[in-house]
Amino acid sequence: MNFFLSQNIIKTLTILLFLSSLLLTGCWDRREVNDTALVLGAAIDTEKGKQIKLTVQVLIPQAASSQQQGGGGSGPRSQVLVRSAIGENMADAMSKLQVELPRKIFWGHCKTYMIGEKLARKGDLHEQIDFLLRHPEPRERALLFVSKGEAADILEFRPTLELYAGEGLRKLSVMHIFASVTIKDFEQMLTGDAGGALLPVIKIVQVKNGNKAETVPSITGTAIFKKNKMVGQIDLKVTRGLLWLRNEVEATAVTVKPKKGESISLDPIRETTKLIPTIKNGKWGILAKITSEGTIVQNGSNLDVMSPQITKRIEKDVEKDIKERINQSLKQVKKEMDVDVFGFADAFHRKYPKEWAKVKDHWDTVLPDVVVKVDIKTRVRRPGLSTTPAGLKEKEVEKK
Known about the structure:
The protein has about 400 residues and is α/β, with parallel strands linked by helices.
C-alpha cells in the first residue's frame, strides 16, 4: 500500500515539475547591453514649420569603463556622444537618429529632458509629452527643464563633478532649492483644474574658476505655462515665494538684515503651508497659513540671538521676508500673467465642489478677483552653538 502511494506521489511531482517548466521561458524581449545605446539626456528644440530637433546624449561605454579603471591616454576622453536629428515629431526624429547609431536607442536611463524656449512659447509641447508618456521606455519620473536659447547647447557642456550635464541638473533639482517637476507632474498640472504649470529654467552663465571664467548651465528661474504654452518667467527670489505657497520649500535658507550692513541666516527645519479657501457673499478668497521653524546658522550682527526679545525680532524679520516673496509671486504670476500655479483651483474644488462646477470653465475670469491673505508664523527653534556673536566682546552685544 505504501509502495503504490509513493509511486503516485512521484508521478504527481513529476507532472507538476513538467508543468512549471513551461512557465520558465526565456526572455524573448531581452536586449544585450553591448547592443544598446543608453540615452542619458535629451533636448527638444523647434525647427521650421512644426518640425522639431531632437538631440540626445549617449553614453560611450569604452570611455566610461576606461576612466573608472584609471586607463591611460593623452588626456581625458569624453564619455558621451551628442547626436541630433530633425523630424515631424519625437518618434520621427528618433527613427532618423537610429540610422546614425549602430546600437538600439534605449530611453530607460534618461533622467532629464530639456525643452528649448522657442518651442515652449509656441505651445506645441503636448505632442512631445505624449511620446514621453506613451512610449514604454521613458521614465515618468524623469525631470523636465526649459532652456534659454537652444536646449541642444546644454548637452554640449562637460561638467566638472558629474559624468554629463543632465546629471548635474538633476541633482540640483532634487534638492528642492528650485522648482522640481517630472514629466508626470507637468502633465498633471496641465490637465488639472487650473491648467497652469511651471518648469525650472536653465541658462548658460559665466562663473569664475580661479583667474579664469568659464560658462556652465545653471538654474536661474522658473517658466510659467498656461494651457500648454509658456507665457512668462520669474526669477529665483520670486520662485521661492511661489514654492512657499505650493508647500514645496525644503532646503531654502532665509537671510534677513536686522540692520544695515548686518545679516542673520536661518536654515529650515520644518515648513508647512495650508491653503484655506472661502466663499462669502459671492466673494472668493484664499487664506495661506504658513508655519516655519528654523535654526540660526550664521549671525553677522551684534545681536544676542539667545535673548528672547532678539529672537522675536528675528522671527518678525523672517516673516516679513517670506511674505514679500509671496506677494511678489502673486503679483507677477496671478495678476500679470493671469495663471494659477499655486493650487488655488484644487483647494476650491475640494471644499466647494458645487460652486467650482459653475466656474471651472471660466476660472481665468474668477482668478483675478480671488483675494489672497497670508498668515505666517515663524519660530527660531535653535539659535546655534555659539551664545554670542563671534569676535565681539560681551559689552558690544545687543541683548534687546
